[in-house]
Structures are given as C-alpha cells and as structure tokens.
Amino acid sequence: MTKTPARGSAFLLVLSAALGVGTAADASVSIAVSFDQLVHDSSAVTVATATEAQVVWENGRIVTYTHLHVDRAVAGNLHVNDAPWVASLGGIVGTTGQVVDGEPTLHVGMPYLLFLRPDPSATTAPGTSPSVLMVTARAQGQFRLKAASVTPDRTKPGHYLSSPVIVIRNPGVGEILPMRPTGLASGASATTTPKAAVDQIADRPIDDVAKEISSAWTKSHAP
Amino acid sequence: MRREHLKSFLAVATFAGILGVSSTASAFCRTGTGGPVDGCTITPDECCMSGLPLYWKNACVGYDIQQGASKQVSYDDAAQAIAAAFTKWTGATCGTDGSGNSRASIDVRDLGPVQCNQVQYNKEGPNQHVIIFDDNTWPHQDSNNTLALTTVTFDSTTGEIYDADMEINTAQQTLTVHDPIPADGYDLASIVTHETGHFLGMAHSGDTAATMYAHYRQGATSMRNLTQDDVQGICSIYSPDGNRNIDGGTVAEDSCDPTPRHGFQSACASGQSGGCSIARMQRPDSSPDSSPGSSSGSSSAFSALSLFGLFFVRRRRPRRMV
User: Fold this and answer.
1) Which residues in chain B belong to E strands, given as ranges?
2) Among A123, B105, B174, B242, which is 20 to 30 Å from A71 by CA?
3) Contact with chain B for residue A194, Cβ under 8 A
4) How far is A134 from chain B (nearest CA, A)?
5) pLDDT tens per residue, range A76-105
6) Crossing angle of helices A4-19/B299-312, nearest 10°?
C-alpha cells in the first residue's frame, strides 16, 4: 500500500470531524462472512462515492445517513448516477460522538466498493427502490478503493475509475473469527472452510473483482 | 503521526522504560474520536486511528448487567466472567513510578442488574453502562456474523468517554463459560476480555499475540489473558499516578465515582431525539432528500475532492496513538 491515499484519508478524517461527519466503526467480534454469502445477502453491489452525510440522534444512538453517488453498477438494482442513502450506526453530533464496533465508515469524498441491502427498519413503497440501504454484513461489506495513478480530471464523477483501481480491506471491520468449517453438522470427517470475503476481494483490481461478483450474482440471484 | 501524538508516545515510551516495562513490541493502539483511517492496514507500527484518543476521566467506572442475563449464560456466570475480564485490565501492573503506585489508575465496578436492555446514551438524563445478552432478537442486520458489539459515546472535543455499552449476541450464537470450548461454541471469557478493552478505550493492536489483536482463532482461550502489549496499552491511558495521557499532555483523574453521567437509572430512557449534523460536498441546489435514482453528481463535490488531492501529499498519516 502506498502512503498517499492514507495520508489523504487522515486529512479527510480530521476535516470530517470538524464538519461533524459521521465516524464510526472500531472493533467488534464478528464471524467472517464468505464471498458467496455477501453476494447472496445483498440487493446491489456498487462502486460509489460518499457525497454527503447527515448524522442524527435516534433513541439514544447516533445514526449516520450517507448519500452516495453510484459511479459504477456492479450487480443488482442500483445504476450509475443513482444516489441512495446508506444508514450506519455511530457518528458525531455537535460535540458528542459515538463509536460502534464494526460498523461501516463512509467518509465524504471517498470511493468504495459496497455490498448493499435494504434497511429493514426503513419503509419502502411497494414497487419502488428502498429509500435507505445498509451495508451488508456491516463493515465486512465495505471496501475502500485506491486508484493506481492520479487522474487529470478530478471534477468528473467516478474520475478515479479511468485508471487501474485496487480494492483495499477495511481496517474498521473489527475482530474477525474464522468461519465455521462446513461439514461439521453432517459429521463429515473432512471439513472445508470457505474463504472469507475480505480475503477473496481485497488487494485485487476492481475490474477482476467486479467480474467475479457478476458471475456469483448470476448464480446466487437466479430467478 | 501527528506531532502531539508523537510527543505523547515518546513520553509514555520513556515512562515505560523508566518503569521497567519493555518498550519493544508496543503495538497497542487507542481508539480515536475520528475512527479508523480508510484504506489503512493495522500493523505493529500503524494504528489506523485518527482524532483524539479516548479515555475515562473518572477513577472509577461502573457497569451493569441486564437482569436475567441469558438462557445460555446465567446472571452469576455472566457477572463472574465480566468481572474477571475487567479485572485483567484494571489489575494490570505498570511498574512503579516512584510514588508507590504501580497499577493502572482505573477501577471498574459492577453496579448490579438493571432493567434496561437497550444500548443508548441519554444526553440529558441518567444512564447505565449496560451489558446486554440478546437472547431473542439480535437488533442488528448481521445476526449470523456478529458475536458482540461495544458502543462508546464520547466528547469529540476532548476524547473523554461519557458512556459505554456492550451487546452480546446469544440469539444465534453459542457462547460458553466452561472449558473445554465446544466445537460449535465461542469462549465468552475471550470475547468479553477483548470487548472490555474497547470499553476502556483500547483499539486493535498489531501484536498478533495480544488480546486486542483483531483476529481470534476459534476455540482458543489465550485472549482471556493480557499480553505485555495489552498491559502497555492500558498503562499508556491510565498512568499509575492517576493521570490520563491525552493528545499532547495529561489530564488528572476525577475522584472515584462510578455513577454514570447525569446519574444512574435502571430503566432505559425513552423518547430521545434531537440534534443533527450535516456535512455535504454537493451543489447548493442539490436536495439532501433526492430520491434513489436521481443524479447527484456534484461538480462542487468533485472540485472539493480536487482540492483535497493537493493535501494528499502534504499530510502525514497518524500512526500509534497513546
């Protein structure tokens, strides 16, 4: 990993804190989700940039609603230029902050590969797209993107996609336990442990990952 | 690493050296008000945390266990396991500082069972630092993947922790307090020792042997016991002399009072709302309520990004926070 993106992130975090942008996701104890499960449980997979955040108190919890701009539709029911809202726990309101283990952290201005699903607590009119989404498997469904080179036109949405982009693992994913080996329940002597999604996706070019997601999506979401 | 953090780190490293605590393998990290840094990988030299380090100012912190605990774990077993976990941290020996004190200057006390079974922080009224076993329904969307969560509420301008609550997923996960750990179970003691570290302000460590390391081998029980790295971490926050190391200095502890902020209450608070922060990088005419499917491509947003790009090469990323 080169240092440049992280340096920028550090600056953005400081700026975000000053602006009251939501920050969350420290550490939880989670069981690793498999790539296939992540695809199966999602309603859409997108490459998107966080453009705005609204942070509110809800019943003693701080919730951050992040507005996305979809830069590339990978699979599912979101399209380029769609602008969904994504809810996550934690953030800063005024001078009070809340850190919630393992929640996705979407920083305004940053691009991500996101596995998304409808927020079950949000109301949706029949036949319409859900108004609020969540990141599938919390921070395990969030991956930062890193462009291999600086693009000449940063004003263009999705500008970073004009150069090779690498998918990076999320440091806020929390404590991850290995998945349970399959075959234990059936008493099989030989067991296999599926590969964790983060190990299958991280540190690879986005184009390769997108192809793999599309292929898995076709199998997983076949009518 | 910000210069203030560097100063703090050097101060603690010097202090640790004086106290006879090894300064090697100090990979511990403290939770920061800014959360994790995007695209960063935690290593022994990299915390991936930003903002101010979190700490409890009071010399004593209380916690409560939801009455009834769990069908899987009785209240008494839960109380014993959680008390043991906290004691690992509060009993950490930091070395002597010349004043005769050697223990981390934080005490944690079980204030007994409470009715409240929700994670929440009451901004204006009494609170409880509750530890909840969710037997019936895990109130989050990832019930198959999450074993436990700790939520920490803090003052974003100082890093002082106001409140901390812990949720343990017993709705769809099998936890045990007895050895040996069954093949399909998880060690409650290991989980709560890790989570109580977060409760006290610790973040993940880059030391693979530490209790605060971000990965855990199923069936293992080694996380029940703190390593030198964990001890160095807790001692870096709560110095034996009673000071809390903060960003660029120290803050003296408050006198011992485990009562939660704004007082104690067994029942949950109700009907809380109010307060909102908005940050956006959009055109002024762009509605925050634009429906899914509408375009929100924002020239100003991406112009701003371009401006940020200028800083990418000028800022140093933070490393360890102490």
Assistant:
1) 29-30, 35-36, 49-50, 60-66, 107-114, 130-134, 146-155, 161-169, 175-176, 186-187, 202-203, 243-246, 249-252, 276-280
2) A123
3) no
4) 9
5) 999 999 999 999 999 999 999 999 877 888
6) 120
